[in-house]
Amino acid sequence: MLKGINKRVVEVVDIENEYFEKAILFLRAGRPDSDEGLLRQRAGEYVRAIKYRPRREFCWQKGLAILLAGGVLLAAALIIAAML
Question: pTM for this structure?
């Protein structure tokens, strides 16, 4: 939520993304005024160029199993090295 902020924004509604319905871009202060149509076009191009891929959740059980397997292999290697 923004309160008491006076910013120029461009809202992109048709972003062609299955996760998000719209994007709001804040224009930089101090930039010369550009054509509104050009700003909308550039904003749309920018947002559509973003490729959002949700991260896969880390499965702690799989990570623990890999860690334990590595520990067992290391212990086995140390035992074999000690016997030689």
Answer: 0.51
The whole-angstrom separation of Cα 39 and Cα 31 is 12
Whole-angstrom Cα distance, residue 11 to residue 5? 16
CA dist 43 and 23 (Å) reads: 9
| Cα distances (angstroms) measured from residue 81 to each of 9, 70, 71, 74, 75 | 66, 16, 15, 10, 10
What pLDDT digit, counting tens, does each position of 3-62 carry?
666 778 888 887 777 888 888 988 888 777 778 888 888 888 888 888 877 777 777 788
Tell me which DSSP letter residue 4 carries.
S
Q: Are strands 9-12 and 23-26 parallel, antiparallel or unpaired?
A: antiparallel
